[in-house]
Design a protein that fits this description.
The protein has 269 residues and is of the alpha/beta class. It has a single domain, classed as Rossmann fold (3-Layer(aba) Sandwich), CATH 3.40.50.150. It has nine helices and ten strands. The strands form two sheets. It has a seven-stranded mixed β-sheet, sandwiched between helices. A three-stranded mixed β-sheet has the order 4-6-5. It is globular, with a radius of gyration of 18 Å.
Length: 269
C-alpha cells in the first residue's frame, strides 16, 4: 500500500482531488465526462505536469473498450453508465445526453498503480463494481468511502456485506448535505492541515478526519435502516418531500435529509 496515494474514482469538478493534493497526497483521478476532464486538465495543469496528479479520462466498466455514458444536463455529477440511473434521474425532471466514451476495468487501473491509502468511489451506478475488484488483490486501502444506496435495505446490505468480507470492520455514515458545516481538525489527523471549505460537490474529509464516530457493522445497519425510512418520506423522491410535513420534520430533526457516504476502515490497520 502506498501511504501517500489517494485514488479518486469519479473526480467530477475536482474539488475532492484539489483537497487531497493540498493535504499533501499524490492522486490518481478518474472521470468519464469529457467536459469535466477538459476543466481538470486546465485547472490542474501544474499537478499534472509534476506528476502529483494522474488523470484518466475514462469510464469504469466490466470490460475494456467503449460504453454508453449518460451526461445529465442539469446535474453534471449525475453522469452514469447505468441506464437505470439515467431513467431515475429523468423521473426527477432532468434530461440526459447519450455519448460514447472509452472504458476500462478498475482492475486495470489498480494494476498500473500501488494500492492507495484511501479510495474514494463515487460513480453513479458502478460503485459495487469497484468494491468487487478489490477482492482480487491481497492488499486493500486502509480507508475507503462509497456512496450509500438510497433505494432499499437490500442495496445497503450488499454494500456493507462486501465491505465486511473485504476486511473492513468499522464504519461511519456521513451526511453529504452537511458538508458546508465540516472543518478539518488542527492539528491534522490525515496529511497536513488544510482550512478547506467543502460544498455539495465534495465528498469531504476522509479517514480519521471524516466526521462522526466509528461504528460496528451492526450499529451501521441499524442507523442506516432508520435513515432509509426517513428517505422514503422526506428524501428527494419521498412521499412527503416539499410538503408542510417535510418542513416540520426538518425543524424538529435539525438535520437536513441528504445523500450519504459509507466510510470504512480496514481491520487491524
Amino acid at each position: 500500500m502506498n501511504s501517500s496515494l489517494i485514488i479518486d474514482v469519479g473526480m467530477h469538478t475536482g474539488r475532492d482531488t484539489e483537497f487531497y493534493l493540498q493535504k499533501g497526497f499524490d492522486v490518481v483521478a478518474i472521470e468519464a465526462n469529457p467536459e469535466l476532464v477538459k476543466h481538470a486538465q486546465s485547472h490542474f495543469r501544474d499537478a499534472l505536469s509534476n506528476k502529483k496528479l494522474i488523470l484518466y479520462d475514462i469510464a469504469i466498466a466490466d470490460y475494456e473498450g467503449e460504453i454508453d455514458f449518460y451526461v445529465n444536463k442539469q446535474h453534471d455529477d449525475w453522469g452514469t453508465i447505468s441506464k437505470e440511473f439515467a431513467l431515475r434521474n429523468e423521473r426527477f425532471g432532468t434530461n440526459n445526453a447519450l455519448i460514447h466514451v472509452k472504458c476500462t476495468t478498475f482492475q486495470n487501473i489498480l494494476k498500473q498503480h500501488e494500492i492507495p491509502y484511501y479510495l474514494k468511489i463515487d460513480i453513479e451506478g458502478a460503485d459495487i463494481m469497484c468494491l468487487k475488484t478489490l477482492g482480487d488483490f491481497n492488499e486493500k486501502p486502509k480507508y475507503l468511502s462509497i456512496e450509500a444506496g438510497l433505494n432499499s435495505f437490500e442495496e445497503t446490505f450488499t454494500e456493507l456485506s462486501l465491505l465486511w468480507n473485504l476486511g473492513y470492520k468499522e464504519f461511519k455514515i456521513v451526511n453529504q448535505a452537511l458538508n458546508s458545516r465540516v472543518r478539518c481538525p488542527n492539528p491534522p489527523l490525515e496529511g497536513v492541515f488544510v482550512d478547506f471549505h467543502f460544498d455539495g460537490t465534495c465528498s469531504g474529509p476522509f479517514g480519521e478526519e471524516a466526521p462522526g464516530k466509528w461504528m460496528s457493522v451492526e450499529q451501521t445497519f441499524l442507523k442506516y435502516r432508520r435513515l432509509l425510512a426517513e428517505q422514503k418520506y422526506f428524501g428527494a423522491d419521498g412521499k412527503l418531500y416539499r410538503t408542510l410535513f417535510h418542513r416540520i420534520y426538518e425543524v424538529l430533526k435539525r438535520e437536513q435529509v441528504g445523500w450519504y457516504d459509507f466510510h470504512a476502515k480496514l481491520a487491524n490497520s
